């Protein structure tokens, strides 16, 4: 069996005409089949350009993208894309919008086969009650669900998400995040997603790619998320290692991403597991408590008063990094 990743990006670079230096260069990373990978970085580092190259919508200046042992050289229904805006056809109903994609993938299917596929994925995103409504009759969150259903309905080998929840309110975003996790668990979908939300990345991703600032940005680190895969949004902050992982991500965005700009990032990023030490300590504490017959105390979040040297209080860090991440490319 081959040990190569399902998606392999090697020495990817992009320089726009008239520019003297690349937006990014020497971008290297791999994604295994069934993995959910998020990429985080400041505006202008080239995240969306990388996604467009993976989708075959944009040509890189250098490097290669290999998916399932074939080079990506143009758009394909093997890769589904969900954009920041829903990109629905306003004159078509939910059913017809999703059916359009299904018929593109399987043009020989009968009407009943197409309809069954449409209803399967519209049901998965909880929109059967609105399946015959047009986009103008839907809320913003419902429109994004239709976009997600349309992408999943063609059963792509890889799903590409470009900040699909960025324009949604917090409650709607949380609901759709939960639905996305359930669908990915059921379908074992391979996902590459852009986000500016650290907590969203921790909730969804198996790996988090950290990009240094542009120009000449690079993937500086691959952060492995070792929190339990069954994690839930409501209880995530109680998981041992959550704050160590979150502080590591925020610290990178606040300071280290700038230090590694201008081509100072590594060409081959190291893999790090910042939550492991805290998880191991929690396991030892639980084992010791069990040996004494004492129930272990619940994990407590770090505060500004108990943050150790070199760590960032999650509240303080969030207030610092939030405005930075609100900038739009």
Low-confidence stretches: 302-329
User: Mean of the pLDDT scores?
Assistant: 86
CATH homologous superfamily caption? P-loop containing nucleotide triphosphate hydrolases
- Give the beta-strand count: 11
Q: Which secondary-structure class do the elements indicate?
A: alpha/beta
Helix content: 25-40%
CATH architecture: 3-Layer(aba) Sandwich
**What overall geometry do the principal axes of the alpha carbons give?**
globular
Q: How far do the termini sit from each other?
A: 41 Å
Number of domains: 1
CATH topology title: Rossmann fold
If you compute it from the alpha carbons, what radius of gyration comes out, rounded to the nearest whole angstrom?
21 Å
CATH class: Alpha Beta
Report the sheet with the most strands, covering strand number, pairing sense and barrel closure. Answer: 7 strands, mixed
> SSE string, helix = H, strand = E?
EEEHEEEHHHEHEHEEHEHH
Q: How much strand? A: 15-25%
Number of helices: 9
Order of strands, main sheet, comes to 6-7-8-3-9-10-11
Explain this structure.
The structure is a single chain. Helix 7 links the parallel strand 10 and strand 11. The protein is globular. Helix 2 crosses helix 3. It has 329 residues and is of the alpha/beta class. The protein has a single domain, classed as P-loop containing nucleotide triphosphate hydrolases (Rossmann fold).
């Amino acid at each position: 069996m081959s040990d190569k990743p399902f998606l392999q990006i090697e020495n990817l670079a992009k320089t726009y005409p008239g520019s003297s230096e690349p937006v990014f260069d020497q971008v290297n990373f791999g994604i295994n089949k069934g993995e959910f990978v998020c990429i985080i970085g400041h505006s202008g580092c080239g995240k969306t350009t990388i996604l467009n190259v993976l989708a075959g919508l944009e040509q890189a200046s250098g490097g290669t993208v290999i998916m399932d042992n074939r080079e990506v050289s143009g758009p394909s229904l093997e890769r589904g894309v969900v954009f920041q805006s829903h990109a629905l056809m306003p004159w078509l109903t939910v059913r017809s919008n999703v059916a359009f994609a299904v018929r593109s993938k399987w043009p020989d299917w009968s009407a009943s086969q197409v309809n069954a596929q449409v209803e399967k994925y519209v049901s998965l995103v909880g929109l059967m009650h609105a399946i015959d409504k047009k986009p103008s009759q839907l809320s913003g969150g419902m429109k994004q669900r239709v976009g997600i259903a349309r992408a999943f309905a063609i059963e792509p080998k890889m799903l590409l998400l470009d900040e699909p929840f960025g324009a949604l309110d917090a409650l709607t975003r949380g609901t759709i995040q939960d639905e996305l996790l359930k669908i990915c668990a059921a379908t074992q979908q391979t996902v590459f997603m852009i986000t500016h939300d650290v907590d969203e990345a921790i909730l969804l991703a198996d790996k988090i790619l950290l990009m240094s600032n542009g120009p000449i940005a690079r993937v500086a680190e691959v952060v492995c998320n070792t929190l339990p895969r069954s994690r839930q949004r409501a209880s995530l902050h109680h998981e041992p290692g959550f704050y160590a992982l979150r502080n590591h991500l925020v610290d990178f965005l606040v300071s280290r991403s700038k230090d590694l700009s201008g081509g100072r990032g590594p060409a081959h990023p190291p893999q790090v597991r910042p939550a492991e030490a805290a998880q191991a300590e929690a396991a030892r504490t639980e084992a010791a408590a069990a040996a004494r017959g004492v129930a272990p105390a619940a994990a407590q979040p770090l505060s500004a008063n108990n943050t150790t040297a070199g760590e960032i209080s999650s509240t303080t860090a969030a207030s610092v990094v939030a405005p930075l991440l609100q900038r739009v490319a």
